[in-house]
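Incident log entry.

Two folding requests arrived from the same account within the same minute. Monitoring flagged them as a possible duplicate submission, but the sequences differ. Recording both here for audit purposes.

Request one:
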Amino acid sequence: MKRAWILALLGLMGSGAAEAGAVRYEVEGKPFEGYYLAGADKDAPLVVLVHDWDGLNGYEIKRAEMLVALGYSVFAVDLFGAGVRPSTVEDKKRLTGALYQGRTRMRTLLQGGLAEAGRQG
């Protein structure tokens, strides 16, 4: 996983992005780790990206890079928690199922990610 982050950052060196990297933040006292990419223009519109059931990984980073290339800044939120990146189908179902069963909690996590996105961009 660390290799994917490093490769993504290296790939951005020539993309014109002003800032890129993992962003640690807290929601209700618990650690989360999003990902922020600043567009070349400091006034670029900000897109908030939400990961799918396998958590924030290289796929979301690639999509963020694509959006930056189109002129946006991007913040990818983390809904599972810092370091929680499920690899088995069972874990993916369990973590995603918990979000769907606890809609209030999911909204809180989304709002926490959105607040961090605002602080970033």
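Request two (distinct sequence, not a duplicate):
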Amino acid sequence: MRLVVVGAAGRMGRMLVKAVAETEGCRLVGAIAKPGSEALGHDAGLIAGTGLLEVDITDDPLPVFAQADGVLDFTTPSATTGFAALAAQARIVHVIGTTGLQDPDFAKLEAAARHARIVQSGNMSLGVNLLAGLVRRAAAALGEDFDIEILEMHHRQKVDAPSGTALLLGEAAAEGRKISLKDHSVRVRDGHTGPRRAGDIGFATLRGGTVVGEHNVIFAGAGERLELGHRAEDRGIFARGAVKAALWAFDRKPGYYTMADVLGMSEG
């Protein structure tokens, strides 16, 4: 499978280049960086520390997408929606690990999925997606007698909050309760807030140091508490998951998929 990495000069981009180079069944055919990047014109493999791949980093995605079977994308919401439109035009796979996406962005991705094979997830790791399945089942089983709180911590450079993974877990909890996360999400508590409203799903965000990612979902009941959690110790898990998603989607029909589909855990 011929793959392109966008944002190839960034931390996750370099991880993705390395994962492609190390995975049987695919090869890197393109690497994109933003205009003005110091990495432009340099070999993507050398930038990623994985050895010469004879793929120079460029800022022009059009000719690169035209010769590819799939794109791996952990960039920004505005960049991702643009790449999705190009992936739809080229009718290829677009794996999206970008976080911070909002409703208008998702609408654009849904439109692109009419022609592209979109695989989008707030987290590409196997462990997190297994955790989401457990959260969904626990939320359904325990009911509103147990309050749900989601605590996440990431490195000091992360720019969006709550994390995409925290929101993924919140959606899983809401699905288990058969409620809308949008209507029951509590992102901020400050000052005199009054008692906690039954059925709400709370989020707490911590930032500091070099933490790759820690997530805990707390079910707090009367006299007992259940905690489900995941710790990411290596960003490579996200890159390897993205490559796995691309290979899975290679021969699928156009559509909008998630990692639950890739792992055979979808309930839809």
